[in-house]
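Hello K.,

You asked for the raw outputs rather than the summary table, so here they are, unedited. I folded two proteins back to back in the same session to keep the settings identical. This is the first:
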Amino acid sequence: MSTIDIYLILTFAINLGIGFIVALRNTQRKVNIAFLFQTICTCAWLFTIGKALSSTDTEVAAYWIRRSSVAAMLIPTAFQFLRKTISGNTLSLARFAREEGVWLLLLVAVSIIVFTPLYLTGTTIYLSTPSSVPEPVYGPGFFLYALFYLLLILRLLAKCVIDSRRLTGIARTELQYILLGW
């Protein structure tokens, strides 16, 4: 087991542990459940990136790179759900889906592109080096993915700044706390 595997396993376990501790402290509180959802999305990305990094076959590496790319897009989306839950704007996944419908549809569209050769044309693994980490060979769809991801992050940060100025009390403190951790 390599050093990076150990770091990924520790990060995965710590993330999941904190997520469940927060959720189990008060399972009736929507913010705690939203935090667990965000933690699970982060753990999904950690798991898929770990599988991609430990792959010794190019096809298997490509399989996990595609999944880690989709999981990465879920992190800011889950964070948006957490932000809205803290600010009191969204209390259910159904309402979140209605309010964020356009962004969720774009996420699905970009996810579909990720599973085509437009995004990833292949991977190379140089077995002659001690750290034979798969290297993705991206296609032109990668730029669309990167642009969409950047827009997700910028939109999330803008909404967080607006909310942190608007909110007061514990809601403001919670939002600032998760921003600090993110």
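The second followed immediately with the same parameters:
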Amino acid sequence: MFWSLFLKNWPKWLSILIFLIIILSLQIALFGPEARLPFQFNLIMVILIFLVLLANLKTVLAFTVLSGTVLDIYSGLPFGIFLFCFFLVFLVLYFLFTNFFTNRSFYTLISLGLIGILSYHIFFFLISGFLYLAGGSNFSFSGSYWLLVLSQTVSTSTLISLMFWIINRSSKRFKPIFLRS
């Protein structure tokens, strides 16, 4: 059944795969742990936040699992940390969007963006710290970690705002719909 769906929509799947490879390559090469740029974007989180608002559940889950797996492969941390963090962030964002933030406004996007970025770092800190204390990893946090979190939160929120503005100008996905009675 999967193969028939794949073969039927192969251009769509191919374009999604190419997009995912480009985003993951940019994240690893430009904004990875060895990057010394003055700003730090988390492109995976930006795409995840937009997908929670715009895409269906299967697409968001597929993106979450694939991006977490690829980042785990390129990471020196124990396998599954990024996958687990992205999955937990997805659960938080999806729960908040379906139960509290039901519209697709700018404020919803910024709120979910800030919650997503901060919850990602909290989950990453807790999971990595637990593995460090349990002896499963030799990764420890430096004093500048929270400065990086602040920098990444501001940079990623700015990128989310810019992308919202571009999508809002070019598409009707974020436009409010008023019903006439």
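Residues 103 and 177 are 10 Å apart (CA to CA).

Happy to rerun anything if the numbers look odd on your end.

Regards,
P.
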